[in-house]
Specification:
It is a single chain. This protein is mainly alpha-helical. It has one domain (3-68): 434 Repressor (Amino-terminal Domain). 63% of the residues lie in helices and 0% in strands. It is globular and about 30 Å long.
Length: 75
């Protein structure tokens, strides 16, 4: 999975009222790792972190929550 895909998915997740710490807890990593992936500073995250972000994004889509990319939460 491309880092740009993860960055876009993080935009969706953070725009849905999740915070960096919540995503990091789900991915079992530090919030700074999530931040760096979103900013494109970490271009090769571990498989487990990428998979966890992908899974969480899938849960968001399945829940029917509206995606708001224009107002994603800050660090």
């Amino acid at each position: 999975m491309a880092t740009t895909d993860l960055s876009r998915k993080l935009d969706d997740l953070l725009g849905s009222s999740l915070i960096y710490e919540a995503v990091a807890g789900h991915a079992k990593c530090d919030a700074s790792t999530v931040f760096r992936i979103r900013q494109g500073q970490l271009t090769n995250p571990s498989y487990s972190v990428g998979k966890a972000i992908d899974d969480l994004h899938g849960e968001l889509l399945a829940s029917g929550k509206r995606l708001r990319r224009d107002s994603a939460a800050g660090p």
